[in-house]
Design brief:
The chain is of the alpha/beta class and about 120 residues long. The protein has a single domain, classed as HesB-like domain (Hypothetical Protein Aq_1857, Chain: A, Sandwich). It is about 20% helix and about 45% strand. Homodimer. This is Iron-sulfur cluster insertion protein ErpA. Its cofactor is iron-sulfur cluster. Required for insertion of 4Fe-4S clusters for at least IspG.
Length: about 120
Amino acid sequence: MTETVASSAPMVFTDSAAAKVKSLIEEEQNDNLKLRVFITGGGCAGFSYGFTFDEEVAEDDTQIENQGVLMVVDPMSFQYLEGSEVDYTEGLQGSQFKINNPNATTTCGCGSSFSI
């Protein structure tokens, strides 16, 4: 069963992140793409965040929609990301997708790895 979650539910897909994903999908000219957010083992703090585009949605993926684009998260990653906010920022240090994760007890300086 596919679960569709509104942006007010267990994860937040910000307007800024959705707008960036939408523009990247338009550049790729493939309306079937979704932003996949995932967790992998490794990084200086134990776990690392990952982002990729995916055309497929698994039956047990959580889906969060904003501005007509989907962010999908697999069940294993979702348990570490529940309550998180996926945002996109542009600043002096460059442009990046960023995860604000309330479950992380420590994070590395680059912000791309964490521990629970």
